[in-house]
From TrEMBL:
PROSITE patterns: 2FE2S_FER_2. SUPFAM superfamilies: 2Fe-2S ferredoxin-like, CO dehydrogenase ISP C-domain like. The keyword Iron applies. Residues 2-79 form the 2Fe-2S ferredoxin-type domain. The keyword Coiled coil does not apply. Keywords: 2Fe-2S, Iron, Iron-sulfur, Metal-binding. It holds the Pfam family Fer2_2. Signal peptide: none annotated. This is (2Fe-2S)-binding protein. InterPro entries: 2Fe-2S-bd, 2Fe-2S-bd_dom_sf, 2Fe-2S_ferredoxin-like_sf, 2Fe-2S_ferredoxin-type, Beta-grasp_dom_sf, Diverse_Oxidoreductases.
Length: 151
């Protein structure tokens, strides 16, 4: 079985996995990183959203064989720095966004990536986030993104 080296939440990791195994499976089942959730497995719900070299991506849609060499993967577990929550995480708490919570790690990762590229997002920028929330927490998600952005 091939071996893959990459950076996960700031730490170097080495993992053995079949080339056609999605990264989401490796994160959850081999590395014990359970923040990214399995929802649809086909790239629609975005519950598995992580960052690959700073950009949001669906971890269920990236097979290990396609992981770029030297990739840096960040999950919700690695979003806080030195024990300080990311502004998006803090805004999520302040706005009491979560309902069942299943989609929320992916929502936060999508929002953090959006703010990294657009620090003062418009409503239409926020609308580009495609993560699905079956509980319908979209109104509070929008509020929290604006709070984190200070807009
Ligand atoms: S589980 Fe990855 S997009 Fe749904
Ligand atoms: S909070 Fe339940 S699916 Fe989003």
């Amino acid at each position: 079985m091939p071996t893959y080296d990459f950076t996960l939440n700031g730490q170097s990791v080495t993992v053995e996995a079949p080339a056609d195994m999605p990264l989401l499976w490796v994160l959850r089942d081999k590395l014990g990183i359970t923040g990214p959730k399995y929802g649809c497995g086909v790239g629609v719900c975005r519950a598995c959203t992580c960052h690959l070299d700073g950009a949001a991506f669906a971890a269920c849609q990236l097979n290990m064989g396609d992981l770029p060499p030297g990739a840096s993967v960040t999950t919700i577990e690695g979003l806080a720095t030195n024990g300080v929550l990311h502004p998006v995480q803090q805004a999520w708490i302040d706005c009491d966004v979560a309902q069942c919570g299943f989609c929320q790690a992916g929502q936060i990762m999508a929002a953090a990536a959006l703010l990294a590229s657009k620090p003062r997002p418009t409503d239409s920028d926020i609308d580009t986030i495609e993560n699905v929330c079956r509980c319908g927490s979209y109104f509070r998600i929008r509020q929290a993104i604006k709070k984190a952005a200070g807009v």
